[in-house]
C-alpha cells in the first residue's frame, strides 16, 4: 500500500482527495494536516466521509509526514514551496495541487503571486503534471506541479490545434466559466450564495494567474508565439468548468474532428465527443474526465472548441491521483471515477 | 417629503430598504450609515442602485441623523437599543428591523441575545410592527419593533386559527424553510454557495431566537396557552420563506377557508389563495405580500397552513416601510411593490 | 457474473442504476430497454456513461430479457405488474423500483393509482424491499417492491420510535422536502428550472400516494394505530430528500440518541449522527446512505427526527442494488457508493 | 390612457409585460389572449399578479383587440406576421417581441425560420426597436420589431466600437451566456431543472437565429464588413444575459472608457460602469437596464466588453414598453423599473 499524506485537508481539493483516495485500492491515507483544525476528527467536519475516513487533522509538520511515500499539498499557494525540499530529502514524493511549482521562471512566480519564490532551485526538477502531455516525465518525477483548473480545461482544448499547427496561435481566445467551488472553502462575501447564486460575472479581465501558466504550457508544444486572451467567469453552480475556445485556422484543409480523435485516441480521461456535440459540465461532475467537442461553424476559418471538466477532479484532486498512479507504476486509471453524477 | 435615515445600510435589509425607498413618492433618504464602509459611495457597493441612490455611507452618529423624521435600523441585533433613546429625544421616529425591541420582557432578551438590554425602559413603549395585528398602535407609535422574518410568516399563518379558537394552541408545529439571504450579508462558511447550494438542512432545532417572539405574539391574541415546536431550515434559494404550519382543530365545524378569507378581507398585503392552492415563494419574490393557503386533509382534525413571504420584504424592509406609512398617515401601500418577480 | 436487465432505462432512476451497476464487480448489464428510445445508443443519450456502458436501448420485450438473472423495473407505475409474472416464470428475479407491488391490498392500489391491479395474486409474495426491516425475507425473495423515496426517508426516521413504543403513533407529522429529480425525467412545465428554481412549494397536501405506503410500513412494526400527516415539498435542488419528523413521546424516560444508535448499530447504510447534529442532504449526494439525527428540544415531549437520503440512490437505484446484493448472497454493500459528493 | 392588448400572454415575456404594464401610469391592459388558456383567469395561472391584473385570457382574434391603441405580440415566431396587417389597418400600433419583423430580407427569414414570410411587404416599414440606435424612427413607427435578447446585449456592447471605427469589425467574437428563462415557458426536457441546473453548456454553435440579426444591426452602423463568431450558452440561473465581447482594435490611441461613456451619456437605460468594473447579471435583474464595462488588458490590441441585461426586461418586455413610450410621446422611462432586485 502506498502511504499518503495530505497537507491542507480542509479545503475543497483536500476533501475531494480524501473522497477519491478512500476508494483507491492501493493507497492508505496516513495523515491529513490542517493548521487551524488540528485535533478535529475529519469526519466531524466532513460528514460525507463518516465511516470511511477515520483520521483526525494534525498540525502540518514534517515529522507527521515522515512515514509517507507521497505527500499531496492541497494548500493555499506558497505553502508547498516551503516544505517540499525537506520531504524530498526524506525520499518522499511530492504532488502540489497549488501553484508553487507551475511556472518555470521564478520571476513569473514573483510577478503573479506577489512574493519571491522560496525554493527556485526545485523549479527545474518539478514536472508539470498534465499526463496528456508529460506522461513519461511524470513517471520518473519526484515533484509534480498539478495544473490549475482553468489551464487543464484550456490546454486540453487547444493542444491538438497548437501541436498540429492547425491554428496560428497568436490570437487565441479562451472564454472560461467556472463553478463557485473554484473559489475555495473560504469565508468571503463574493462567494456567498446570495451574492453568486442566480448571477454571472466575469472577473480578473485585467489579468489572471492562470494566464501565464496556459501560455507557458502551450508554448512548450509549438515553435510559434502564443498570444492568448483569457477571460474567466463565475457561474452559479458548484462544480464544473466550461472552456469555450476560439482560434483562427491556418489552413482550411484540416479535419478537426479527426485531429482531435487521433490526438486523444489513447487517453482514458479525455473523451472527444462526436461531431456537432455540445458537452455539459454535469456529465463530468465528480469524475476525472475532460469531454471535448470541436466545431467549425459554416466551414469558416474559426475553430471553436468546447472543453469541460470538474474543476475539483480533473482540475485538481483527480488529476493529482492520476499523477500519483503514474509515479508509482500503477495503472493510470486506478481508483479514479469515470462516470459523472447525472442528474 | 419624509426625511429618512438608515443606520446600517450595507446588509441585505439595508439595501432592500434603499431599493424600496428610492421608489417611494413621499420619502427622501438623507443619510445612510455604515461603520465599516463610511466614505464609500453607496452605488459603488451596490451597482443595482446606480443613478437612483446618490449618497455615500457616513459614520453612524446621532448628528448625521438629526434632521431625519424617521430612522430605520437595519443593523445587527444590539445596535438600535443603544441609539434609540437619543433619537426619540430629538423627536425622530425609530423603526428597528432588528430584534432589540421585539421581546417585551428584558429577561427574555438577555436569555436569547446574550447580554442585558441597554434600554429596558423603552420596551413598554415599543410597538410590535405587525400591522395586521397592531395597526392602530402603530399609527401612534414613536418606536417600532419590526417582526422577524420567520415570525411574520408564522404568525400570519396561525393568527386566524388562534384568534378564533379554531385550534387548541398547545401543540402547534411550525416547519419553516428560508432562503439563504436570511443569514445576512456576512462572510461565513456555511452561507457559501458551495456549502448551501444544492443542499437542505434544518438548524437550531434545540432553540431559535424567533421561537419566543412567535409565542409572545400568538399568546397576545388568545387566552389559551401557546405551545409551539419550531424548526427552521436553510433552503438553496436566495429569497423566500415558506412556513408549513400544523395545528389540531378544536372542533370539526369550522370552514377554515372562510375563516381565513374573512380575517384578511381588508388586508392589502395578505392574500388568501383559493381552497386547495399551494403557494410558491417565487410569487411573492421582491414584493410585500404574504400568500396563504389553508388545508384540512381528508377532513381530519389537522389544519395545515402554507404561508409564504419574501424574507427581505414582508419579512423585513417592506414591512418596515408599511409601518412607516402608517406612522406618517400615508396610505399603507404607498411605494410598496405588490407583484412578485416571476419567473 | 449476475446478468441484469433494466426495463425503462431512460429515466433518472434508470440512468442511476446504470451508473451504479457499471461499477458493480459482480454484475453485467445485458439489456436496457426503452420503448421510445429503442435503437438509440445509451451513451448518446447519457454522455456521462460514455466508455462505461456499451449498450443500445432495446424494445421492452420478454425475449430480450430472457437470459437475465434479475430484471429491474425503472418504469412508470403500472408497467412491472404487467410483465412480472412472465419473468418469474422464467426463473428471473424481479426488482421493481416503481409502486406496483408496494401496497399489499389491491384495493389500495386501485384507489391511489387509478386502475385495477394487473396481478394481485403476486402481492402476497412480493417483499417490501427495505432491508433495514425485511432483510431476511429479501434474501429469499423472487419479487421485490422497492420503497418509494419519501417512504424510505420517513420510515427510517420513525422506525426506532415506533418499534420501541417511545411514541404514541397516532399523530405523527412528516414534513418532507424533495429535490426536483424526484419528479422524474418528463417534459412538464412545473419541473422547468424557470418554474422550480429559486422557489419552494408544498404540493399534494390533500393526499399523496406515498402516504398509505408509509402507514402500511409503520403499522407493520407496531400494534398501535398509526396516524400520519404527510406534506411533501418541492425544493430548488436536484437530488436529495430531507424528512423532518415530529412525534409525541409516550414517556419522558427514553434516551433517544441511544435508541437510534442501537437500532441502527449494524446497518451499513443508516448513519446516526452525534447528538445535536443537523444532517445536510449534500452529505449523502450520490451515495446509498441515510443520515439521521434525533432531537428533543428543551427536553419536552416532542421528538424531532431529521432524516436525509439521496432520492435516486437510497431512495431508488441504490436501494434496489442493495436488495439485489441480498437476493444473490453478496455482501450487502457490494458496488454501492458510500461517500457523498461534497461540495 | 393607452389601451393595450397582449397576444400570447402565457409565456415569460407575456407575463413580464403584464407585470410592467400593471405598474405603468399611462396604460390600461384591455385584452390578453391565449389560444390554449382562453377562459382562464390570468391570475389563476400567475398568482404573482393576483389583485393587480383582473383579466381572463381570451382567444387571439382581431375583434377582441379592435379597441386597443397598441398590441404587443409575445408569441412564438411566425404569429405576428399573420395578424399585423389587419391590426395596422385598424390604426392599431403593433409591437412584436418575436422575430417576425427583425430581419429586413424575407429570404433571411425563410432561411433561419424555416417558412416563407407571410407579409414581406411590411418588412420595409417595420422599425427595429433598439431605441439607442433608432429612437427617431421608433417615435414615428406603426410597427416595431423588438430586438432579440442576445442581439440587445451584443449590439449595445459592440456599438461604440463599431460606430467609431475603433475596431476592425471583421473578426468579432461574442461569447454569450443566458439564463434558462430565455428558452421560454415550454415543457421540454432540456429546460428541466434536473437537466439545466448545476450545469453549463454551449448550444447552436453551428448557427443561431440571432446571428444574422446582430450582423444586420451592426452592419447598418458602419461601412465596413462585419464578421462575427457567436456562441450562446445556457447557464443555471433563471434571468440574465452576460455577453463577453472580443474585438481587435484598429488603432491603439482610443480611450475606450471615454468612448463608451460619451456614446451612452444620454441613455437612461445603458449604464457604463467605471473603468475596471465587472458587471453582474443580478444587478439588472428585473429592471430595464444594460450595464456595460469595457476593458483592454495589458493595453494590448484586444478590446473586451462585458454587457449584461435581464433577458426578459431590456431583452424583451421592458424594451417593448420603452418602444411604446416613444411611439406614444411619453417620457421614455415611464413605468420602467430601474433598480435591479439584489440579492
Structural class of chain A: alpha/beta
In one word, what is the shape of chain A? globular
Radius of gyration of chain A: 19 Å
Strand order of the largest sheet of chain A: 3-2-1-4-5-7-6
> What is the subunit arrangement here?
homotetramer
Chain pair forming the biggest interface = B-C, 46 and 45 residues
> β content of chain A, as a range?
15-25%
Mean pLDDT of chain A: 97
Distance between the first and last residues' Cα of chain A: 34 Å
Please estimate the helix content of chain A.
Answer: 25-40%
User: Major sheet of chain A, described briefly?
Assistant: 7 strands, parallel
Count the strands of chain A?
14
Order of helices and strands of chain A: EHEHEHEHEHEHEHEHEHEEHEEEH
Number of helices of chain A: 11
In terms of per-residue confidence, which ranges of chain A show pLDDT below 50 for 5 or more consecutive residues? none
List the helices and strands and how they pair.
Four copies of one chain form a homotetramer.
Chain A: E1 2-7, H1 12-22, E2 27-33, H2 42-45, E3 57-58, H3 62-65, E4 70-73, H4 80-89, E5 93-96, H5 106-113, E6 127-128, H6 131-140, E7 143-145, H7 149-164, E8 172-178, H8 193-196, E9 201-202, H9 210-219, E10 228-234, E11 241-248, H10 256-263, E12 270-272, E13 290-295, E14 302-309, H11 313-327
Parallel strand pairs in A: 1-2, 1-4, 2-3, 4-5, 5-7, 6-7, 8-10, 12-13
Antiparallel strand pairs in A: 8-11, 9-10, 11-14, 13-14
